[in-house]
Amino acid sequence: MTSVDGLVTGLDTTSIISQLMSLEAAPQTRLKSKVSDQQKLTTAYQAINTRMLAVQNAAKDLAAATTWTAVKATSSSSAVSVAASTTALAGTATFDVTSLAATHVLTSAVPGSGTPAAGASLDLVFSGKTVNVPVATNTPQGVADAINGANAGVRATVLTTTTGQVLQFSATGTGAAKSFSVSGLTNATAVMTQGADGVVTVGNPLAGGYKLASADNTFTGLIPGVTVTANKVESGITVSTTADPGKAADATQTLVNAVNSALSLIDGYTAYNATTKTGGVLSGNPMVRSLREQLLTTVSSGVPNGTFSTSGVSLDRTGALKFDRSAFLAAAGKDPAAVKAQIGTTLTGRYTEVADGVINSTTGKLTLVIQNGDAYVRKLNDQITDWDSKLASKKVALQRQYTNLETALGKLKDQSSWLSSQLSSLS
Question: Domain locations in the chain?
Answer without folding.
Answer: 1-70+244-427, 71-99+198-243, 103-193
